[in-house]
Design goal:
The protein has 9 helices and 8 strands. The protein is an alpha/beta fold. It has a 6-stranded parallel sheet with strand order 5-4-1-6-7-8, with helices on both faces.
Length: 205
Amino acid sequence: MYQTILFDFDDTLVETKKNKRPAFIEAAKRFYNFELTHEEMNRYWGVPFPTVMQRVFGDRGFEVEEATKNYMSLEDEFPVTLFPDTISVLEHLVRHNIRLGVLTSTSFSVVEMQMKRLGMFSYFEKIQGADETTVHKPDPAVFEPSLQHFGSERILYIGDTPHDETASIGAGLDFMGIHRAETPHPFINPMRVLTSLRELLESCC
């Protein structure tokens, strides 16, 4: 039984890539009149949100703060969506007095907005965004703020990428991968590979 479970956010708790990659492409076209390809976005996906904004817009000479506001204005057109079992699993964990947190490469303000819209913000004791540290996954040091908050108890991290696995195991956490695609999973040595969050309940409570 775990006392604390931390989650990655994008494509772990919410479905992001299929919704947000088109949002970047639309922002580039609508506000800056250039064509951004899916292939370019695939190269950037998974790095911290501020870095994506810098590479997509800043490196082309556009002001990043303005570009971020323009991109965020498309939230209602390209919203992230909950996986079907996300809320029910979070509710179950909270009922069993498991402390919950999120550690994500997305900026806190973005995650906060999306979580509140989806009605999931209140489930989490701590939400650590990309702007809380100067290091990022796969560097294990990214977990330091969350570990300081939750203490030395046994912690499980759930994520969907090899960077999630490398960082969490390096920080001394247990790791379970979640893999929703038909292709072989990308993990090296996870405790378990989940295909849905519901499967998590079989292992922890």
